[in-house]
Specification:
The structure is a single chain. The protein is an alpha/beta fold and 561 residues long. The protein folds into three domains: 201 residues, 3-Layer(aba) Sandwich (Alpha-D-Glucose-1,6-Bisphosphate, Chain A, domain 3), CATH 3.40.120.10; 259 residues, Alpha-D-Glucose-1,6-Bisphosphate, subunit A, domain 3 (Alpha-D-Glucose-1,6-Bisphosphate, Chain A, domain 3), CATH 3.40.120; 85 residues, Alpha-D-phosphohexomutase, C-terminal domain (TATA-Binding Protein). Strands 1-3-2-4-5 form a five-stranded mixed sheet, sandwiched between helices. The chain has a five-stranded mixed sheet with strand order 7-6-8-9-10, sandwiched between helices. The longest helix is centred in the first third of the chain and has 19 residues. The structure holds 1,6-di-O-phosphono-alpha-D-glucopyranose. 1,6-di-O-phosphono-alpha-D-glucopyranose binds next to loops.
Length: 561
């Protein structure tokens, strides 16, 4: 049976027709469009039934195309509790290819009341175009799903189970459908990748695999140390899925080592309303202050280390308080620079003669971090558009060792074969062990946490010494609700606006009149995960930043009135 005939047999099933009718009878308002954005579909959970239907259909196509496991992660990560979202995961753990985003967007937007035939015609057109390059005829569909702790996540997960079971009934074809339940987003990426690499079709013990792959090397790092400068690690879990997984991982960890005690904070994932509220990586980064339930005195003590994960544990932010209780934010820029510095310190200069080590950031990177990378570390730096998928791509394309981090704490390091071969040939056991701590597939808060601690332990520095490496320019990140964020179009890696007309000129003017020390920068872009536009500003003083933010807010109001 050809792929298209096969798809037609699925589309004719009663289940699909009934599902379509019930979804189309409750459409979104006329002007509202679904967009597969920065991180898949993401919005208020009550609006997500059609996007989920489209996500299941694109997963089906992707599974036919790749003939390998494809994952669906149900999460809205840092968003508030009432939101949710979906993204698909590729066989090797990457994100949906950007060339396919238009397909899933088109499927979602073609669900219209009384237009089933048009929907089918559009879907088959999309399928014909999307599958044109594949010659795969075998059709054992292989799907994996996972979800975060949100109240609505279980409902969406049940829909996926129903959807794929009904396809099985409708087509009598083989389907391997595995539900991993409540897992972090990076774990779901890891799971799909493991299934592909091992060619394993049965569910495996994720906790064991994950522990062996990333925690075991960390235990080795610690066993090589005479003593640890940290007594206790406090992890703010944002009341999300990070707590579910870390509670189990902590149990295994504490049986294996007594070095660095772990304490989990904000672990109330059973109370859905608490997710990401007054805690978590996004809260700490945006507000530049301690999350709820962190004791100030403990945060001033250099023997303690504090960090916050976000709601699905793919981002991490570290922090401390100095002797005067000033907040020291150790964000994605700081992690990228620390990792860069560590690589330079642990290798002879000649190691890099025929290799390129560089850092990828976004427009949100603090200007002083970029200067530090180029002037002090003397490394190459590239700017990418927001979204780890963009940074990951640029890191792979431009560097042999590509360190990429968004300022919000989302990132990792990728290595190519050239580097890995050279590392094998060189006698650098410490660096080899360090490299094995890194989850290259995707930014992972839990593995990033151990990567950073391993560096701090090896360099024998505490959080405050790390913070003193350079001084951030005062900065603020603010959200602004606008009537229609799709009006905001950017260019130059989102550093400048093409639309709404005239707004960029207004921002340029605001920056120029507040730029006495040539340190002022501000930009505006539409969020891909929330219904807002984001304003970023940095300048030589806190007061100047505040003036810029207030004036840009006024300019946005005027441009969208
Ligand atoms: C997601 C993306 C990140 C991005 C963030 C905010 O993070 O994975 O790459 O920085 O959204 O994006 P935006 O500014 O477009 O809303 P997460 O942790 O929410 O999945």
């Amino acid at each position: 049976m050809s792929q298209i005939t096969y798809l037609k047999s699925i589309l004719c099933s009663d289940f699909l027709r009934d599902t379509y009718d019930s979804l189309a009878s409750n459409p979104v308002t006329e002007h509202e469009k679904f967009v597969y954005g920065t991180s898949g579909f993401r919005m208020h959970n009550e609006k997500l039934d059609i996007p989920l239907f489209a996500t299941c259909l694109i997963t089906l196509l992707r599974s036919i195309y790749c003939n390998e496991f494809i994952g669906i992660m149900i999460t809205a990560s840092h968003n508030p509790p009432q939101d949710n979202g979906f993204k698909t995961v590729e066989p090797k753990g990457e994100m949906l290819p950007q060339s396919w985003e238009k397909y899933v967007t088109s499927i979602a937007n073609s669900v219209k009341k009384g237009k089933f035939d048009e929907f089918i015609a559009n879907f088959l057109n999309v399928a014909t175009e999307a599958l044109k390059e594949t010659t795969v005829e075998g059709k054992e569909l292989k799907i994996i799903i996972g979800r975060d702790t949100r109240q609505s996540s279980e409902r969406f997960s049940s829909f996926c189970t129903k959807f794929f079971n009904n396809i099985l009934t409708a087509t009598h074809e083989k389907i391997k459908f595995i539900d991993y339940g409540v897992v972090t987003t990076p774990q779901l990426h890891f799971i799909v990748r493991k299934h592909t690499i091992k060619q394993q079709t049965d569910k495996f013990d994720i906790l064991n695999e994950y522990f062996n792959e990333f925690f075991q090397p960390f235990l080795e790092v610690m066993s090589n140390l005479k003593s640890s400068r940290f007594k206790k690690l406090y992890i703010d879990c944002a009341n999300g899925v990070g707590a579910v997984q870390l509670e189990k991982l902590k149990e295994i960890y504490s049986k294996k080592t007594k070095q660095i005690e772990i304490e989990l904070i904000n672990t109330d994932y059973d109370d859905y309303s608490k997710l990401n509220v007054d805690c978590g990586a996004d809260f700490v980064k945006t507000n530049q202050r301690l999350p709820a339930n962190v004791n100030e005195t403990l945060a001033m003590d250099g023997e303690n280390l504090f960090c916050s994960l976000d709601g699905d544990a793919d981002r991490i932010i570290f922090y401390a308080l100095d002797a005067n209780a000033n907040f020291c934010l150790l964000d994605g820029d700081r992690m990228a620079t620390l990792i860069g510095e560590y690589f330079m310190e642990k290798t002879p200069k000649s190691f890099w003669n025929d290799l390129k080590l560089g850092i990828v950031q976004t427009a949100y990177a603090n200007g002083n971090s970029t200067s530090y990378i180029t002037d002090e570390l003397k490394l190459d730096v590239k700017c990418a558009k927001t979204g780890v998928k963009n940074l990951h791509h640029d890191a792979v394309e431009n560097f042999d060792v590509g360190i990429y981090f968004e300022a919000n704490g989302h990132g990792t390091v990728v290595f190519n074969d050239l580097f890995m071969n050279k590392l094998k040939e060189s006698n650098l056991p410490e660096l080899s062990l360090f490299v094995s701590l890194i989850n290259q597939a995707v930014g992972d808060a839990i593995t990033d946490m151990f990567v950073i601690i391993a560096i701090l332990l090896n360099l024998d520095i505490d959080a405050k010494t790390w913070f003193s490496k350079y001084k951030d320019l005062p900065n603020r990140l603010v959200k602004c609700v606008v009537p229609d964020r799709s009006q905001f179009e950017t260019f130059d890696y989102e550093r400048r606006l093409a639309k709404p007309a005239g707004l960029q000129d207004a921002i340029n003017h605001i920056v120029s009149v507040n730029n006495a020390l040539h340190k002022t920068r501000s930009f505006v872009r539409a969020s891909g995960t929330e219904d807002v536009v984001r304003i970023y500003a940095e300048s030589h003083s806190v007061e100047s930043v505040e003036v810029v933010v207030q004036d840009v807010l006024k300019a946005i109001k005027a441009a969208t009135a």
